[in-house]
Design a protein that fits this description.
The chain has about 375 residues and is an alpha+beta fold. The chain has two domains: about 150 residues, Sandwich (Immunoglobulin-like); about 190 residues, Zn-dependent exopeptidases (Aminopeptidase, 3-Layer(aba) Sandwich), CATH 3.40.630. It is built from seven helices and 19 strands. Strand 9 and strand 10 form a beta hairpin. Helix 2 crosses helix 7 and helix 4 runs antiparallel to helix 7. The longest helix is centred in the last third of the chain and has 23 residues. It starts with a strand and ends with a helix. It binds zinc ion (ZN). The site of zinc ion (ZN) has 6 residues, from loops.
Length: about 375
């Protein structure tokens, strides 16, 4: 039921779900056509999609477990399903992969909120823009939630990339709180001294970049009540063995090594974020939290994922350990960002947030 002439999409009640999805099953497997979204505190959901994308919209009333919810399906598959904590009337927002080849954006409201589905219409405002006025939300008592750049013009195939204007990624004041004076961590800025690590565009040195980020991570985590030990806090040579033995000797809870990447043949078109772990569910989880946050502050830079690796420092440390590659110093996009102090600050906050979220989840277990 897509009224393409007027580009107004009425919301189906969830009971019709099966039927309607069936009709669009043969959609090509491609990147998500959802490029950016924002739920503003005026109750208006704005979407940017690839031009001409066919959307389906649904509504379900609250049940015993969940509040009222609105969801929209987009052709094209999401890379990384995720849940974003809501605020005010919004319980949470989920981005998922309901079926192969689709992306689903779900807004779930708190139990106290009741939405009238008859008043919901998703309007196309441009070939790549959509608006849904969610009537009945209390005014202005929540902050904007969103990901990606709504302003940019969409090309037929765009990837969903979170950006750092979304309200939960760019400032350090709203970082998660964990129990103070309980946890300890080793932060390991890669390389150092004569070992400058990767040398990037314009001669930028990995050792300098990662030291700056690491010192900021240490400062943030200390302010949250963690005991932080740095393997180095200046430009000195440091072999791999002492980094590991420091962590093992100090019996810290976590080990995080911070690096920046270089591609073979210094290809300028190779950019992206990746985080490594060696083994274990905890190492994987720590790496996943960090990866997720760093990707959020690096819009447009590919998410190369969480990967298993035998890097010395994460292989021989006895505690959950991760090694994050904050971008490619040899890549055109990443290197110009890594050269900016403001971006290094965002990275430091993102890495800290990932670590704190990991600890917080461990606390809740
Ligand atoms: Zn390195």
């Amino acid at each position: 039921m897509i009224f393409r002439s007027s580009r107004r999409i009425a919301f189906f009640l969830a009971t019709l779900l099966q039927l309607n999805l069936f009709a669009i099953r043969d959609s090509a497997k491609a990147a998500s056509s959802l490029a950016a979204w924002k739920l503003g505190n005026d109750g208006v959901l704005k979407l940017r999609t690839s031009a001409g994308a066919k959307l389906q919209a649904y509504f379900a009333y609250a049940d015993a477990k969940k509040g009222d919810r609105v969801w929209i399906d987009f052709p094209g598959e999401l890379i990384r399903p995720r849940t974003i904590q809501g605020n005010g009337p919004v319980d949470e927002i989920r981005l998922g992969k309901p079926h192969n080849g689709f992306t689903r954006l779900v807004i779930e409201f708190k139990n106290s909120i009741s939405i009238d589905p008859k008043k919901l219409v998703l309007k196309g405002t441009a070939p790549d823009r959509w608006e849904l006025n969610i009537v009945g939300l209390p005014d202005n008592n929540f902050s904007n939630i969103g990901e990606g750049d709504l302003i940019r013009r969409s090309t037929p195939s765009t990837y969903l990339k979170p950006n750092y204007t979304s309200n939960n990624s760019s400032n350090s004041s709203n970082l998660p709180e964990v129990i103070r004076d309980k946890y300890s961590i080793v932060i390991d800025p890669g390389h150092g001294g004569r070992d400058v690590g990767a040398v990037g565009i314009g001669g930028i040195h990995e050792s300098d970049v990662v030291l700056d980020i690491s010192l900021q991570v240490a400062k943030i985590l200390k302010s949250k009540g963690l005991k932080v030990i740095m393997t180095r806090s200046a430009e000195i040579d440091l072999d791999l063995y002492p980094r590991v033995s420091l962590a093992n000797r100090s019996d810290v809870d976590l080990f995080v090594s911070i690096h920046a990447n270089a591609s073979r043949n210094k290809r300028k078109d190779v950019n992206g974020i990746e985080t490594f772990f060696y083994s274990g569910a905890k190492g994987y989880k720590l790496a996943s939290y960090i990866q997720d946050q760093v990707v959020r502050v690096s819009p447009g830079s590919p998410d190369r994922g969480v990967r298993k690796s035998r890097f010395y420092v994460i292989r021989w440390t006895h505690m959950p350990a991760a090694l994050v590659e904050t971008g490619f110093l040899t890549g055109r996009m990443d290197s110009s960002r890594l050269a900016q102090a403001s971006h290094r600050n965002r990275l430091a906050i993102a890495i800290s947030r990932g670590i704190l979220l990991y600890l917080k989840e461990e606390e809740g277990r």
